[in-house]
Write a structure and sequence with these properties.
alpha/beta, Rossmann fold, 5-stranded parallel beta sheet, two-stranded antiparallel sheet, 8% strand, repeat, Nephrocystin 3-like N-terminal domain-containing protein, NPHP3-like_N
Length: 473
């Protein structure tokens, strides 16, 4: 019996994505929260895990979601390290797009089962090993079958053996949106709920991802009592965290950079810091990119920051925002009707944020059917938010569009960065002026007896705006 158990566990190890562990050598120096940042979010997640928050005590699954670069993986990594340090029973899977093992779901269940088997009492490991002995092809079966055979049933057997713990076993699944198949992403969520539906396991699952369509839809269908949500939005003072992060990193540069003796003591000034915080839009990827670029030991930090701020031009081939540009490119390449989407985004970027950014007006202006803008923007939920108007929150015709990343504008208006996604100001303004003229020509004459029927979503002020736009564009 002993020999077969070892054989079964060795077979399991052949199907483990070791690079997906929170402490994997392949992920050495993974992103994690800068000291004294994200404190409120980390405390809220830890309170949920420990059952200290009355509002989330019944929830067995927590969804941490936000825009690209908001810091989801850093938070998940930090939570994993805290739990590891506190001797929790922990298993994790950090997805990574295009990675042959971490970018697909086929390794997920076996990887989680291996980590639990390595940390839980031997009963769990023996049951998993026996499963492999009895069914060597278990890894070819559905995710549902694998979850039941390699996680749920071994945990139940462990509990029946007399095992008990004051703490929950915790599973962390990070970057679910980076799994290669959106349908599988939704299945993983469904399976997680099915695994815990009977509430007979001391298990909690933390999922971190972007709010992509299939993921959001799947979570929206789940019972409120089982699920806690944490949106990475303005409620968590991310701007203050980003300012703290930038200030600390610039101080490190001033004390550790080879050219530190040439850096002014008051560098950077408050205006520059304000600009960087504003450009970050609450997303850590922008500030992290700035720090990486500015820290280069082969260049003057002061000069590099001037390039970031647009005071100096970069040399040919020097791209301060290469990482950020790659992210935007990946997102835009994955959407349909990108030309129409860019026309809508361009309209928002090139116009002052007033009444004309309402969804109703944009649909009428671009001759789209009601609901088209929401459908188009749905695929860009990580960059664009369609939300209630702050002054008319209960009026469905007053939905507005908000760009979540201030740096997206810089990207789209710089042809060297955005290439085929470039928004040419002159061409866009010309196109919008043509549309304005077409609408104005269609308006009934003020001398006629017919009542004026303006564009839906417009007011007389908006019509004046159209006229002004045609004359000044």
């Amino acid at each position: 019996m002993q020999g077969s158990t070892i054989g079964g566990f060795e077979r399991l190890q052949e199907y483990v994505a070791y690079g997906a562990f929170h402490d994997s050598g392949e992920r050495f120096d993974p992103p994690k929260c800068h000291p004294n940042t994200r404190v409120a979010i980390i405390n809220r997640i830890m309170d949920w895990i420990n059952g200290l928050n009355e509002d989330t005590r019944e929830a067995l699954i927590m969804w941490l979601y936000g825009a690209p670069g908001a810091g989801k993986s850093a938070i998940a990594q930090t939570i994993a390290e805290i739990l590891h340090g506190q001797q929790f029973f922990l298993a994790s899977f950090f997805f990574a797009r295009n990675d042959p093992q971490r970018g697909v779901a086929k390794w997920l269940v076996t990887t989680l089962a291996y980590q639990l088997a390595a940390k839980l009492p031997p009963v769990f490991r023996e049951r998993v090993a026996l499963t492999f002995e009895q069914d060597p092809l278990i890894v070819t079966k559905s995710l549902e079958a694998q979850f039941m055979a390699l996680v749920r049933e071994p945990l139940l057997e462990l509990l029946h053996s007399g095992f008990s713990t004051n703490d929950h076993i915790v599973v962390i699944i990070d970057g679910l949106d980076e799994c290669d198949d959106p349908k599988v992403q939704a299945r993983i969520i469904d399976l997680s709920f099915r695994l815990l539906d009977s509430r007979d396991l001391p298990l909690k699952i933390l999922v971190a991802s972007r709010p992509e369509v299939d993921i959001s839809s799947s979570f929206d269908r789940k019972p409120f009592s089982m699920l806690a949500r944490i949106p990475l939005d303005d409620d968590y003072q991310s701007e203050e965290d980003i300012r703290h992060f930038l200030a600390d990193k610039f101080n490190e540069i001033k004390t550790q950079h080879p050219l530190r003796s040439y850096i002014p003591i008051d560098w950077p000034d408050e205006d520059s810091l304000d600009t960087l915080v504003q450009k970050s839009s609450g997303q850590f990827i922008y500030s992290s990119t700035v720090v990486k670029y500015t820290t280069s030991a082969r260049h003057r930090p002061t000069h590099r920051l001037e390039i970031v701020l647009g005071i100096q031009l970069p040399k040919a081939g020097d791209s301060p925002f290469a990482e950020l540009d790659a992210l935007y490119r990946h997102i835009l390449m994955g959407v349909e009707d990108v030309d129409l989407i860019l026309q809508i985004i361009g309209f928002i970027i090139l116009h002052p944020p007033n009444y004309v950014n309402s969804v109703t007006f944009i649909e009428a202006f671009l001759s789209l059917a009601p609901g088209d803008v929401q459908l188009l923007m749905h695929s860009l939920g990580s960059l664009i938010s369609v939300e209630n108007h702050p002054y008319y929150p209960n009026d469905p015709e007053m939905l507005t569009i908000r760009i979540l990343h201030a740096s997206l504008k810089d990207y789209l208006l710089d042809q060297s960065r955005s290439e085929e996604f470039f928004l040419d100001r002159l061409k866009m303004h010309t196109r919008y002026a043509e549309i304005c003229l077409a609408h104005m020509i269609e308006l009934p004459s003020l001398e006629s007896n017919s009542p004026l029927q303006p564009l839906p979503g417009t007011t007389p002020c908006t019509l004046i705006y159209l006229s002004f736009y045609v004359l000044t564009a």
